[in-house]
């Protein structure tokens, strides 16, 4: 969800015309000369390059504009740069350069599938806030005031919050960054003393869910919290590696000395830290995790950090295959079986009753409805057209949040359609209130 929200924000920013309303203002483009600071010029040149590829490919890369001047106009930079300043952030010139290279080198089919925002990982990280991992943040734009790759984690409604990874880091075993632990394949922040902790970590935690010296405890109420580890000889409940103080493990309900390499075990948590229970031996014994290429069992921690037991051998985990790319279709082509319609068109039903066939056709104009066709059958109603396509319009964006209407995003302070606070693509900040697009600073949470 975070990624989808970021992509919509990126789209509205690249749509806003920065300089077109002021005849005396310089127009930052690839041919305009050094009228902006170097970092701002680099960003504007990236957008100009994306526009050129858009026209070359005849597919949406930045917008639905069908000529270079129009695309360069809607892809200018002032609103983006205002957002960076409002959030105390800046342009990542290194990522801008990497993104521009990726946009220049990508095939038309690839660009049609990814658009500019996802042409390379760097393209989603060309703007960032000041906050580093763990720093205080107050939400808003630019990753909530955090550096590229981080977001302001406000899932619990806290304000201020802290900068955390935007996407969970995949992990196997003990290979997470400092201050995080591996919880069922994803790195999560370790909880502080007394703080709620990950309930899932009670079942099979190969890594410590709480800060050093603490364990995750489940109360009768169902709440969890990080409490001090148990002393030697104490009664214990959970058979995990972090229930007892260092050097001890929860064995048969008591904190006893952890078993050393070569000693018999029934589960990994009986072994000293850094060891696993090797079920390939008879009887099973505590042993060092197997290295790459060595035989393994399916037990917890059977392989060294970063490796997985695949087919009985420790190896790098098999990555998920990328999603298949959809073909770029010709104008007017049949699109019912999938594919991406060319610039200025979207996949539309030939009739609004049965939608027996679908073809690429010009989308609705600004101000018109871009709601998908609903088909009603005895089994129920369903949408025949893509209900989540922001590029369904002939120009501008289809406002997926604001009642499916074709709109052009407006800068902060500009007039918009809603009195009550409303999420809408009609504003570059994604929020309209009192019939005006809110400012970037208005999106910060209040302490």
Brief write-up:
With 447 residues, this protein is of the alpha+beta class. Helices cover 17% and strands 18% of the residues. Among the domains are: 127 residues, no CATH class; 30 residues, no CATH class; 56 residues, no CATH class.
Summarize the amount of helix as a percent range: 10-25%
| Helical stretch tally | 7
- Tally the beta strands: 24
| Coarse structural class | alpha+beta
Low-confidence blocks of residues:
1-8, 17-34, 201-205
Please give the alpha-carbon distance between the first and last residues: 25 Å
Structural shape: elongated
Protein model, in words:
It is a single chain. The protein has 447 residues and is an alpha+beta fold. The protein is built from seven helices and 24 strands. Among the domains are: 2-128, no CATH class; 136-165, no CATH class; 332-387, no CATH class. It is 17% helix and 18% strand. It has a three-stranded antiparallel β-sheet with strand order 3-5-4. Strand 16 and strand 17 form a beta hairpin.
Search tags:
three-stranded antiparallel sheet, 24 strands, disordered N terminus
SSE inventory with pairings:
Blueprint: H1 2-15, H2 38-57, H3 68-74, H4 78-86, E1 90-91, H5 93-105, H6 108-114, E2 127-128, E3 136-137, H7 141-145, E4 150-153, E5 161-165, E6 180-183, E7 186-189, E8 214-218, E9 224-228, E10 248-251, E11 254-257, E12 276-278, E13 285-287, E14 308-310, E15 313-315, E16 345-349, E17 358-362, E18 374-377, E19 380-383, E20 397-398, E21 406-407, E22 422-423, E23 431-433, E24 436-437
Antiparallel strand pairs: 1-2, 3-5, 4-5, 6-7, 8-9, 10-11, 12-13, 14-15, 16-17, 18-19, 20-21, 22-23, 23-24
Helix pairs in contact: 2-5, 2-6
């Amino acid at each position: 969800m975070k990624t989808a929200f970021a992509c919509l924000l990126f789209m509205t920013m690249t749509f806003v015309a920065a300089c077109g309303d002021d005849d005396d203002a310089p127009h930052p483009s690839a041919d305009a000369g050094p009228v902006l600071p170097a970092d701002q010029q680099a960003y504007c040149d990236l957008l100009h390059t994306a526009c050129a590829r858009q026209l070359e490919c005849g597919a949406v890369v930045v917008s639905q504009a069908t000529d270079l001047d129009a695309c360069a106009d809607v892809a200018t930079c002032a609103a983006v740069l205002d957002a960076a300043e409002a959030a105390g952030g800046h342009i990542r010139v290194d990522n801008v350069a990497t993104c521009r290279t990726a946009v220049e080198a990508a095939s038309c089919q690839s660009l049609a599938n990814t658009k500019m925002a996802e042409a390379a990982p760097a393209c989603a990280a060309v703007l960032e806030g000041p906050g580093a991992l763990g720093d205080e943040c107050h939400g808003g734009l630019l990753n909530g005031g955090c550096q590229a790759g981080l977001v302001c984690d406000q899932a619990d409604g806290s304000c201020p919050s802290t900068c955390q990874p935007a996407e969970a880091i995949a992990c196997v075993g003990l290979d997470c960054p400092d201050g995080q632990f591996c919880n069922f394949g994803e790195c999560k922040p370790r909880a502080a003393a007394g703080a709620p902790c990950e309930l899932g970590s009670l079942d099979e935690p190969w890594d410590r869910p709480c800060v050093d010296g603490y364990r995750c405890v489940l109360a009768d109420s169902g709440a969890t919290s990080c409490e001090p580890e148990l002393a030697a000889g104490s009664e214990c409940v959970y058979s995990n590696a972090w229930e007892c103080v260092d050097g001890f493990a929860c064995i048969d309900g008591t904190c006893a000395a952890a078993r050393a390499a070569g000693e018999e075990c029934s589960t990994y948590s009986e072994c000293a830290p850094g060891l696993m229970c090797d079920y390939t031996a008879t009887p099973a014994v505590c042993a060092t995790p197997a290295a790459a290429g060595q035989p393994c069992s399916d037990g917890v921690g059977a392989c060294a950090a970063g490796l997985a037991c695949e087919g009985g051998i420790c190896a790098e985990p098999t990555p998920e295959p990328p999603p298949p790319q959809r073909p770029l279709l010709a104008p007017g082509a049949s699109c019912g079986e999938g594919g991406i319609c060319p610039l200025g068109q979207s996949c539309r039903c030939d009739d609004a009753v049965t939608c027996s066939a679908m073809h690429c056709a010009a989308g609705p104009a600004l101000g018109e409805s871009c709601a998908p066709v609903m088909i009603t059958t005895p089994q129920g109603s369903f949408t025949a057209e893509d209900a989540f396509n922001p590029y369904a319009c002939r120009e501008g964006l289809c406002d997926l949040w604001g009642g499916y209407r074709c709109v052009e995003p407006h800068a902060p302070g500009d007039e918009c359609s809603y009195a009550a606070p409303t999420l809408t693509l009609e504003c570059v900040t994604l929020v309209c209130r009192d019939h005006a697009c809110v400012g970037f600073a208005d999106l910060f949470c209040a302490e």
